[in-house]
Amino acid sequence: MKEEKYILEQFDLGSDRINASNVEDGVFFEKVAFYASQIDTPSVDVSSAWNDFSAKHLKTKTKVRTLNFNMMYRVAAVLVVALVTSWFLFFNSEQIHTELAETKTFLLPDQSEVILNAHSSVRYKKRKWKKKRSLTLDGEAFFIAEKGQTFTVLTSQGTVEVLGTQFNVKERPDYFEVECYEGRVAVYYNNNEIELSPGQSIRLVNGIEQDRIEFNTNTPSWLNEESSFVEVGLNQVLDELERQYDIELETSTIEIDRIFTGSFTHTNLETALKSITIPLGLRYQVNGKNVTLFANDEH
Amino acid sequence: MPDKDPNLCQEKAFSSFYTEHLQAASNFAFYKCGDSASALDLVQEAFSKLWENCASVDVLKAKTYLFTSINNLFLNTIRHHKVVMNYAKERPYLDRDNQDPEYLLREEEFKSQLLKAIDELSDAQKEVFLLNRIEGKKYREIAELLDVSQKTVEKHMSAALKTLRTKFGNI
User: Which domain CATH number covers A201?
Assistant: First the structure.
């Protein structure tokens, strides 16, 4: 350490080297300092170097900028597509919608009849209907299709095609059901095709096909202000109850993945609640629009 | 706003930063690789790195970033060329009044030995020594530039001087 300091001191004395404590060292370091500072460095032509640099490296940055422009074009294209789509959706297409606890009956341009269950909607293109009988369904509806070209019902979980017949389509979260009441109905889902004859139905829960159940009614039960279920998950039944009565169910203390077979009326909430809770050994409490379900043995 | 906080992502600001530091950066690269062409290549590449990362580099740290980049690029790519250095022409001898041919010869001898001795210093010692001598930078400035402590710079410097003295002591 001492030597380090000494050396640096000797070296940094500058013109004061006459004071150097060791004359020999002083002379030597003066020489080193003097001649070393004469060493030449290649001088750089700044402007030509800059031209070279900006040509090579700044260009790449400009490219990035053009990419950004492309991004803007993309955004613009998406906006245009969205606008055009929404124009077709809102101005060119007819939409019929039901609230909770409401059903609607209406006729399509070719006199085919649609009965829309609670909290459902149907969308179709009025002008194109004659060319293409196709509509989009969200929820549950019963169709009486007039004879004619293929009648198509599109849902998020599958497609139903018929020629002229009566059938019910129920499309609810994680649940898809088609019942054929007359004629023949073709159901398409996940690349599968299934043909239904009168009295046959198909059910998908979470996209998985359930056991086929035959039925012998002429119209869906909900048209007679009743919902009936055969081996359906309790959560689906309770969802339907909420839709039919516009209520909120509190079910946190009960098991909702049990299987339910039975029906409930759409005209009296107390009766409906009883028809669900009694067979399952549950109790209920009504508090305005809120209904709590709990197990019988709880107090 | 641009005046208060000059952002290197703006081409104008970057260009003036480039112009201001190109010579010093190229000298620094030259001390390392000893070849003016590859020195300039190194410097251009370091500037390009700075330009790419202009948003994340603090303006006040940009100079250090530049020199550190040169250092890293040097270590990664070129490694140990012989430094080919020369004295600037037409420079006087230490004792201007002494025109004795023997003296002049002795001084020339000393100068060429000095170059050789400097070239044999370690990279770190050479770098500090030349920055101090040729650029006339203070140890504190060198420390800032290389992002090391002043103590480290002084250590390299004294080690360089010690090596030189030992070498010449043998002559």
Answer: 2.60.120.1440
